[in-house]
Each structure stands twice: as C-alpha cells, then as structure tokens.
Design a protein that fits this description.
Blueprint lengths: L2 H7 L3 H10 L13 H11 L3 H7 L7 H12 L4 H11 L6 H6 L9 H12 L4 H14 L7 H8 L6 H17 L1 H9 L5 H12 L6 H9 L7 E10 L2 E6 L10 E2 L2 E3 L6 H13 L2 E14 L4 E13 L9 E5 L14 H8 L4
Parallel strand pairs: 1-6
Antiparallel strand pairs: 1-2, 1-4, 2-3, 2-7, 5-6
Helix pairs in contact: 3-5, 5-6, 8-9, 9-11, 11-12, 11-13
Length: 355
C-alpha cells in the first residue's frame, strides 16, 4: 500500500469538512481528512525508510495531509544540515498555515546559534509561509533562554499584507509580552507595529492567563484606532482633591477645563509623553503609575485616544506656563466646571470615587 493509499484508508469526511473550514484557501478536494495523531503514527513508522525518502523528494504534493506528513518527517530529522536541506526544498511549496505550523524540527534546539542566520533569510523571503515559519521559529526557539532583543526588532521589521504572516507576527508579540514583557512592551508603547498587528497582539496577550490583571489593564490602554490622536493625561490627587487645568482662550476648546497632559510625539511611550508634558506645561516632575481609564472620543475635527494615568508630583510646584488657571477640586465639585467633552466618561467615573 502506498503512502497515499494509507492516507485515503484513514479518511474521515466529517473531519475533512471541519479542517476545510480552518484552511479556507485550500480547495475541499485537496483535503483527505486524516487526523494529526494518525499522521504522526505513519511518520514514526516510515521515517528513515526508502519509502519516506522517495515521498519527501516528490514535490509538490497534491493533498494537505501529504504536506502535513512531510512536515512531520522533517521534524523527526536529527541531522541539522540535512534538516535545512529538506526545509529549503519544502518551504517554497507550502500553501497553508496548518502545514506550516506543524513544522517544529527537533534538531533546532541544539543548533540555535547557527539557526539564527537561517531565520533572517526566512524572514526576508517573498514566500508568505516561509516568512510565517521564520516568525514561528523566532517564537518557539528564541523567547526563553536564548532570547535577544534584536529578535524583536527582526520580527517587527517584517512587512507583509498577507493575513497569515500578520497573524503569526501578532502571535509572536503576544508571546513576547508574556515571556519577555520588559523588552516587548516598548514595541507596543512606541507604536512600532502596523495597527492591525499591534491590536491583534494585544488581543491575544489579553487572552493569556500568564499576564496579571494590572498588565492587562495597561495593554488595553495601548489599543489603537486608525487616525486617532494619542493623548496621555495625569490624574493627580492631593488631600482628597484632583488637579484640573483651564485651557487658554486662544486655543481650541479654550477656557474649558481638562487634566494636565498632551499629545504623544512620534516614538514616545504614553508615560514618557506625560512626564514631558507635565514638565513643559506645569514645571513639575510626575511619577506615572497605573491607568485610571482609557477611552476614545470623536471631536468634529479629530478623534482622540485619551489615557488617564494615576500620578503623583515627584518634585516641583505647579506653575501657569500654558494654562490660564490651575485648581484642585473634589469629585462632588465636578458639575461646577465646564470640561472638554472628551473628559465626560472620566468625570462620571470620578464621581463614583471615594477619595
């Protein structure tokens, strides 16, 4: 019985239909319907045989399961150089994410130093599933003991319009946020990634149970929206009252009250922007703490993404460098002041506070 005959003997039409929905770019007639455990059994039985050698040199394959079996046979190859040769032949033939993600060669773990150069080549490929495999290899091999911040830059530098490449890029950064948060978080804070990848990475990270609730709240505040102006503001308490500042009359929304802060400059994190703005506007140094609230508000002339941080004055006395007035008020006094419309949701939450 040939390998293809063995595969068809294991055919499960219901599973084929289910699998077809997971890989919609593969025509239904190209999916036999063989489950992965059965493919692993076949791979274990034929690895190292002449039959397996003939199979892996018969490219391209006609069926999804043949590609899956091919990936499992590569995984079993113990010789690193032989494995690379097999990959060079196979990667250009990949046409779906499922076969791509099955590729986890067992010999990679002992050859990570040499493998890094191969990964760079895969990431620069024109073939989308070769790039996806490169990103997957970075994720599976270099986020633990062999981690280097350079790999984050490599992954962030991938530019592709392909959905499956972008999804793996997001998955990589979601895992990096879990395993290497101090190194990965600045890529989100500085808005380095394309917007879709950025938001998808945050979404996947929020699904993880390995991230604290405090970290998740901060990640939620880092979500982006196309065209929105990023603004960071400070909620500074003193003796049960919080600071508000009145905009000068010559500015947009002049004479309305607001929280101190301002727009992020290119490459700034929200916390860096807030420290800078408070120094420029009030001549104070603030200690930025956790997120109080993050929201989007649409003005007639722009949409703002406003993140309000709990802050404390670390040094200095507030001065009127840009605003016309500074006050400290209690939540019960909110209705006595006219605030910028974007602050509405914040003010409602503050009314519930018991400071």
């Amino acid at each position: 019985m040939t390998i293809r005959e063995r595969l068809f003997a294991l055919r499960d039409e219901e599973y084929a239909a289910f699998h077809g929905r997971l890989v919609p770019n593969i025509p239904g007639e190209k999916i036999i319907g063989v489950r992965i455990p059965a493919l692993r059994t076949i791979a274990a039985e034929i690895k190292g045989s002449r039959e397996a050698e003939e199979f892996i040199t018969s490219l391209p394959h006609d069926f999804l399961e043949e590609n899956n079996l091919h990936a499992l046979l590569i995984n079993a190859e113990k010789d690193y150089n032989t494995c690379l040769k097999l990959l060079r032949d196979f990667l250009p033939q990949l046409d779906n994410w499922a076969s791509c993600d099955l590729l986890r060669p067992s010999c990679f773990g002992k050859n990570r130093k040499a493998l890094a150069a191969e990964v760079r080549g895969w990431l620069s490929s024109d073939a989308p599933y070769t790039v996806r495999f490169g990103l997957e290899t970075l994720m599976t091999q270099y986020l633990d003991g062999d981690f280097c911040e350079e790999y984050l830059t490599l992954a962030a530098g991938v530019e592709s319009g392909d959905y499956y490449v972008k999804m793996m890029q997001a998955w990589y950064f979601a895992e990096a946020l879990v395993k290497q948060p101090q190194s990965a978080l600045p890529f989100m804070e500085r808005r380095v990634l394309p917007l879709w990848v950025h938001n998808k990475a945050i979404q996947k990270a929020l699904e993880s149970r390995r991230i604290s609730e405090e970290q998740k709240q901060y990640l939620k505040a880092l979500k982006r929206r196309e065209g929105a102006v990023e603004v960071a503001a400070a909620l500074i308490w003193e003796d049960g009252k919080f600071m508000i500042c009145r905009r000068p009359p010559h500015k947009t929304r002049g004479m309305l009250w607001e929280f101190p802060g301002g727009k992020l400059e290119k490459g700034e994190t929200p916390k860096e922007a807030l420290v800078r703005e408070c120094k420029e506007e009030l001549d104070i140094t603030v200690s930025v703490q956790d997120v109080f609230i993050s929201l989007f508000h649409k003005y007639p002339d722009m949409t703002v993404h406003l993140t309000l941080f709990n802050c404390a004055v670390a040094s200095g006395t507030p001065k009127l460098l840009e605003h016309s007035e500074i006050k400290y008020i209690t939540p019960s006094e909110i209705n006595l002041y006219d605030f910028c419309p974007a602050d509405g949701e914040i003010l409602e939450k503050l009314k519930e506070c018991r400071q």
